[in-house]
Automatic annotation (TrEMBL), chain A:
Keywords: Cell membrane, Membrane, Transmembrane, Transmembrane helix. Residues 135-144 have a biased composition (Gly residues). Residues 107-122 have a biased composition (Basic and acidic residues). Belongs to the CPA3 antiporters (TC 2.A.63) subunit C family. This is Sodium:proton antiporter. It is found in: Cell membrane. Residues 107-144 are annotated as: Disordered. It is a multi-pass membrane protein.
UniProtKB/TrEMBL annotation, chain B:
Residues 61-100 form the NADH-Ubiquinone oxidoreductase (complex I) chain 5 N-terminal domain. Residues 680-755 form the MrpA C-terminal/MbhE domain. Residues 121-386 form the NADH:quinone oxidoreductase/Mrp antiporter transmembrane domain. Its main location: membrane. Keywords: Antiport, Cell membrane, Ion transport, Membrane, Transmembrane, Transmembrane helix, Transport. This is DUF4040 domain-containing protein. The chain crosses the membrane at residues 75-98, 105-121, 127-146, 158-178, 198-222, 265-282, 359-380, 400-421, 442-462, 492-512, 556-576, 588-609, 616-633, 639-658, 679-699, 735-753, 865-885, 905-926. Residues 598-662 form the MrpA C-terminal/MbhD domain. One of its GO terms (biological process) is monoatomic ion transport. It is a multi-pass membrane protein. GO terms for cellular component: plasma membrane. GO terms for molecular function: antiporter activity. It comes from Streptomyces hoynatensis.
């Protein structure tokens, strides 16, 4: 039977909750901090699922050695998180350079797709099929 | 068979290019592969008639049991004659019709090849592939060059309808293969699974067959596709493609005709389409549309005949298939020739052509008579067998089937007469049309196809013999005693009387069209499928827009909330439902954890409330260090080391970037209710993950893996199991990871160094805000690059310290690199330390490239590291070992003694160089972003690094 460390489980939960909370923010900088915390949380979770702590996995070792597999995975994850963080940071910087802020605003183009019919009613020509049909009947319409 | 198929496709690829030089020759060349297929099939006739079935298989993906198998039995033989024979004739006809048109020739030939593959395929997946290819090529042929809207629309309708049936069919075929345990078509029919899933699968397959063969509500695409040129219609929409569904039903009927609702479903749908299609055909004035509706009707009859699954109906189905291909292709080509000669195919505008084109008229009369079921033509043989088959059918509702068959035949005779009248009769009040004479290569195929109707009708023993192997195969129900024999004369029997009555009444119906016109006008108009198609397409579009409008709000937090709630509901819900065993819970393993955990949680709490950027970054850094300490407590010194190094670097980089951004977050304050919602979602998701952690700890099983790693770490030349994992057990992973790291660094560097044309936003805290004291300027030259800085930016404290520390830190990084095999460390840690040394030097001297020798840029360093790692990974291949394999080397170096190291040390050096290079890449980008106007950057740009 494996044992669980309550303190660590609570820490992981707290890190994840804070990370998610920051991830849901509209400031890209706070999203970045959220990603950072989520990285820590995921690494701790990996380590935690490896079982009870032990001595550093150096062979030949004495006593109970810690599981090296989650450690190697977490090490990879740490370095990748570093890469992701710098990329997000560059995005924050660029957003500020272009817009003077780093707020993640709503994507209006995304929302406009849903209202395609409303705009169609308001102003013809309409969807691609219909429009192509009209030009085709007029003669000489090229294929889309 | 695969060779013939390949020949089709190869020539099809060549033909379009050839057609530019040889407009006619290309078409004749294109006719060769189908002719070869016919010749080959003719050579196989004796074998197949004896009951043999040659089979060839090409293994495609053996481990997945994907085999392309082809098999030629009686049914396939008949279909090969049909698709390849008609294909060759249509291609010869096309030489005169198209005048060039290499695209059409190539596509028609490819279609012939695909159809050949379809009717010989003995593998369910191969069958499906060919099935869909016919849809695609049909789309291309109907659409033409895409200039006409009507043709595009028709092509789209044909494609959407047939593919909409094809996809469920694929599901059905896979299900059938799973149920029967074999992907082989012949195996499936020989040992059909009669289970519940097989029933569902069968219904799905029938859906595919019905759409392909234009049955019932799916019929609309076929008349619409008549905008295609006549040879295309003659081939695809009379002889080949639409026969796909018929073929599939014929293929499966021996195994499944008596299973579930198959027989009532297929027979009633088929016969209903037979009657309604003929009724539609009777109302047309466009001769081609008349033939198209006639085709829909005949396909219904064929499906019904094959679907009945008795010996006699099977025989009738085969004969009718052959008959239909012959007469309908010939008639389509006739209409094409008429249109070519007169410019119209409207029955109301053609007049007196019977005298002007007597030969064309004569062949059309023969083909039409075959269509109406007149002796001594092949259509008559098929109709007789059909009447006989339903008269002796082994089910109670055969009377209804017989009545529907008679009614449909009556209408068929009527529209046959109407076709002849419309095409060739002299009409009162209409001047005679003056046609141009069609050429020999246009007429030849029509004559040949007509001759088929005649020869196979008079030579009925040949027809019966050819149809025999399928009908006599086990599976079809033997109905009549003695078995039905194909013949022109069976004596004065019920079927003969019904047949005669149908033909006579049908012709009478045509002759009496004027008096009956009023009554016909009051009859309900048969339903048009086109409207249904348009409504369903519009419905799908409206549903898609509705769904988009209600799900796609464009807000990132909203999307993330949905994702997180899904995490809470699905994995969290399953945790609640399954209740995995709880591990043995202890409050803590080591008391040191407690303050560290509290520190992490306190930092988290602070991050939630802090609205100041730099402060938040510092708290995040503190949380990172505390997590690193927790790693150490858990027995992961490698992890802790990397965490500390990465955390330091992150904080330094973030602070360097953030110096220029406004102090507070934007937006300043989020909306209150949203904060509460976010908090709820976040806490729920966090709790969910914590529970997951608890249960994951409890159910962990494969500890053996880790034990193996520990036991065999020594073999990799590394005593540190983590390094062994990174460099050996999971080296491919590491290689991928450093590639990703390099990618992100390049992207981040490009973004950071990009200079905006706009002036940077207000509120940036530029360097120089802090006024430096004069006494702080060093007099000695501690760092070469720092001499170039303005005095106010220099620091007496920093420069000597950096001067002393820089080599020492670099040395430490090398130590970590080499010691990683025995102690905590390794390429990652070493590279990060080297990167930090560069950052330290940058802080004092403000020149990123100063540490690199001339000509070496950070990207060269990082890319060189990746190249080295990749080379080390691939090198074992040269020695016949698998990639990434490591060996231990022993070198004798006199002053040091013997030095042993593993080759994966070089891999680690690659990692080291890459990580250091990544750090320098970021540093240089920061430098350029920083010094958009600063003196240091200008100096660095002017002067090569050194």
């Amino acid at each position: 039977m494996t044992t669980l460390d309550l303190a660590m489980a609570v820490t992981v939960g707290g890190l994840f909750a804070t990370g998610f909370f920051l991830l849901l923010d509209r400031a890209l900088m706070r999203v970045l901090l959220g990603v950072l915390l989520l990285g820590h949380a995921a690494n701790l979770l990996l380590l935690l699922s490896g079982g009870a702590p032990g001595r550093a996995p150096l062979v030949p070792g004495h006593g109970r050695l810690a599981d090296p597999l989650p450690q190697a995975m977490a090490l990879t994850a740490i370095v990748i998180t570093f890469g992701v963080t710098t990329l997000l940071l560059a995005l924050v910087h660029r957003a500020w350079q272009l817009d003077g802020h780093d707020e993640v605003r709503d994507d209006l183009e995304d929302r406009r797709i849903g209202t395609v019919h409303d705009r169609e009613d308001a102003a013809p020509p309409a969807g691609p099929g219909e429009a192509a049909g009209r030009t085709g009947q007029g003669g000489g319409g090229r294929a889309p | 068979m695969p060779a013939l198929l390949a020949a089709h496709l190869l020539v099809a690829a060549l033909v379009p290019g050839l057609a530019r030089r040889l407009p006619r020759g290309a078409w004749y060349l294109a006719a060769l592969p189908p002719l070869a297929a016919v010749a080959w099939a003719a050579a196989q006739v004796p074998l197949v008639l004896r009951g043999g079935a040659p089979r060839e298989a090409v293994t495609w993906a053996g481990t997945l049991h994907l085999v392309f198998a082809a098999r030629l039995d009686g049914l396939s033989l008949l279909m090969v004659f049909l698709v390849s024979g008609v294909g060759a004739l249509v291609l010869i006809h096309g030489a005169g019709y198209f005048h060039g048109g290499g695209r059409e020739a190539g596509l028609l030939l490819a279609f012939a090849g695909v159809m050949f593959g379809l009717v010989t395929a003995d593998d369910l997946i191969a069958l499906y592939v060919f099935w869909e290819l016919t849809s695609v090529i049909s789309f291309l042929l109907i659409a033409g060059d895409g200039r006409e809207a009507e043709r595009r629309r028709a092509a789209q309708q044909a494609l959407l309808t047939t593919v909409a049936g094809g996809l469920p069919m694929l599901f059905g075929l896979v299900l059938l293969a799973a149920e029967s345990g074999t992907p082989s078509l012949s195996g499936l029919v020989a040992d059909p699974p009669h289970t519940g899933p097989a029933l569902v699968a069968l219904l799905l397959v029938l859906l595919g067959a019905f759409t392909k063969s234009a049955q019932g509500p799916f019929a609309a695409w076929l008349p619409a596709a008549m905008v295609a040129p006549a040879p295309v219609s003659a081939y695809l929409h009379a002889a080949a493609m639409v026969k796909g569904g018929v073929y599939l039903v014929a293929r499966l009927a021996p195994g499944f005709a008596g299973f579930g609702p198959w027989r009532p479903l297929v027979v009633s749908a088929g016969l209903l389409t037979f009657v309604l299609g003929a009724w539609q055909a009777l109302r047309q004035t466009d001769l081609k549309l008349l033939l198209a509706h006639g085709t829909v009707s005949e396909l219904g009859l064929l499906l019904a005949l094959f679907g009945t699954g008795t010996r006699t109906t099977g025989l009738a189905g085969e004969e009718m298939t052959l008959a239909h291909a012959a007469f309908k292709s010939s008639l389509f080509l006739t209409v094409g020739a008429l249109e070519h000669a007169t410019g119209t195919r409207d029955a109301r505008r053609l007049s007196g052509l019977g005298r002007r084109l007597p030969w064309l008229c004569a062949t059309a009369v023969v083909s039409t008579a075959s269509m109406a079921g007149l002796p001594p033509l092949i259509g008559y043989l098929g109709k007789e067998a059909a009447y006989d088959g339903y008269a002796h059918a082994p089910f109670s509702w055969r009377g209804w089937a017989l009545a529907a068959l008679t009614l449909g035949s009556l209408l068929t005779a009527a529209y046959s007469a109407r076709f002849l009248w419309g095409a060739f009769a002299r009409k009162p009040g209409l001047a005679d049309s003056s046609p141009a004479r069609p050429g020999a290569d246009a007429l030849g195929p029509i004559w040949l196809l007509t001759a088929v109707s005649l020869v196979f009708g008079i030579g009925y023993p040949l027809t019966g013999g050819l149809a025999g192997p399928y009908a006599d195969a086990p599976g079809l129900v033997a109905d009549a005693h003695p078995p039905y024999r194909t013949a022109l004369w069976h004596g004065l029997s019920g079927p003969l009387l019904l047949s005669a009555a149908a033909v006579v009444l049908g012709i009478a119906l045509h002759l009496a069209r004027r008096p009956l016109a009023g009554a016909a006008g009051r009859l309900p108009v048969p339903p048009e499928g086109r409207r249904g198609y348009e409504l369903s397409v519009r419905g799908v579009q409206a549903a898609a827009v509705w769904l988009t409008r209600h799900t796609q709000v464009g807000s990132l937090p909203a999307y993330l909330t949905v994702l997180l709630l899904t995490v809470v509901l699905v994995p969290g819900g399953s945790l609640l439902v399954h209740r995995p065993p709880l591990p043995h819970v202890v409050p803590w393993h080591s008391p040191v954890e407690l303050p560290l955990a509290l520190l992490v949680l306190a930092c988290c709490a602070a991050l939630v409330v802090i609205r100041h950027r730099l402060t938040a970054v510092l708290f995040a850094g503190a949380a990172g260090y505390a997590v690193g300490a927790l790693f150490l407590v858990q027995g992961a010194p490698d992890l802790a080391l990397t965490q500390f190094l990465v955390e330091t670097l992150t904080v330094v980089i973030v602070v360097l970037v953030l110096r220029r951004l406004p102090a507070g977050f934007t937006p300043e304050r989020p909306h209150g209710t949203f904060v509460a919602l976010r908090a709820c979602v976040a806490v729920l998701a966090g709790a969910c993950v914590a529970c997951l952690a608890v249960s994951a700890t409890a159910v962990r099983q494969s500890l053996a893996l880790s034990r193996t790693v520990l036991e065999r770490a020594g073999e990799t030349g590394s005593h540190n199991a983590v390094t062994a994992l990174l460099l050996d057990f999971r080296a491919l992973d590491t290689l991928g990871e450093i590639s990703v790291l390099l990618g992100t660094a390049i992207a981040a560097g490009a973004l950071l160094a990009h200079r905006s044309r706009r002036p940077p936003g207000a509120g940036a805290g530029e360097a120089g805000v802090f006024r430096a004291a004069e006494w702080d300027v060093p007099r000695e030259r501690w760092l070469p690059e720092a001499d170039l800085l303005p005095g106010a930016e220099r620091s007496l404290l920093l420069e000597p310290v950096v001067r002393l520390l820089f080599p020492a830190v670099l040395l430490l990084s090398c130590h970590l690199l080499f010691a990683g095999h025995y102690r905590p460390g390794g390429g990652f840690a070493g590279g990060l330390v080297a990167g930090q040394a560069c950052f330290l030097r940058y802080l004092a001297g403000r020149r990123a490239g100063a540490v690199l020798p001339a000509g070496v840029t950070p990207r060269v360093l990082a890319g060189g590291g990746l190249a080295l790692a990749a080379a080390v990974a691939l090198a074992p291949l040269a020695f016949g070992a698998p990639p990434l394999a490591a060996t231990e080397l022993h070198l004798r170096l006199p002053p040091l003694g013997t030095v042993s190291f593993a080759t994966n040390l070089f891999f680690d050096i690659g990692v080291y160089l890459l990580v250091a290079g990544v750090c320098l890449t970021l540093l240089c980008a920061l430098d350029r972003a920083e010094g958009a106007g600063g003196a240091a950057a200008r100096l660095q740009d002017r002067e090569p690094a050194g």
